Amino acid sequence: MLEGIMQGLEAALSIQNLIMVVAGCLIGTFIGMLPGLGPMSIIAIMIPVAIKVGDPSAALILLAGVYYGAIFGGSTSSILINAPGIAGTVATAFDGYPMARRGQAGKALTIAAIASFAGGTIGAILLMGFAPVLASVALLFHSAEYFALMIVGLSAIAAFTGSGNVAKAIMMTVLGLILATVGESAQFNAPRFTMGISDLQSGISFITLAMAIFALPEALYLVLDPERSNTTGVGNEIRDLRITKSEAKQIAPVIGRQSIQGFLIGVMPGAGATIASFLGYAVERNIAKGEERANFGKGSVKGLAAPETANNAACTGSFVPLLTLGIPGSGTTAILLGALIALNVTPGPRLMIDHPAIFWAVIISMYVGNVVLLILNLPLIPYIAKLLLVPRNYLIPFILFFTMMGSYIGQNNSTELLLLTGMGLCATIMRFARFPLAPMLIGFILGQMLEDNFSRAMNLADGVSFMWQRPMTAVLLILAIMLIFLPSIREMFAKLR
Amino acid sequence: MTLDRAIAGIFLVLCLVYGYTAFVTMENGLLPFERNMVFLPNTMPKWLSVLGVIIGTIVLIQTGPNAQIQINDGEINYRNIRNYKLTQAILLIVLMISYALLLRPIGFIGATTMFLTVGGIVLGERRFKFLLPVAILTTFIIWYLVQELLDIFLKPWPSFF
Question: Is residue B155 part of a domain?
Answer without folding.
Answer: no
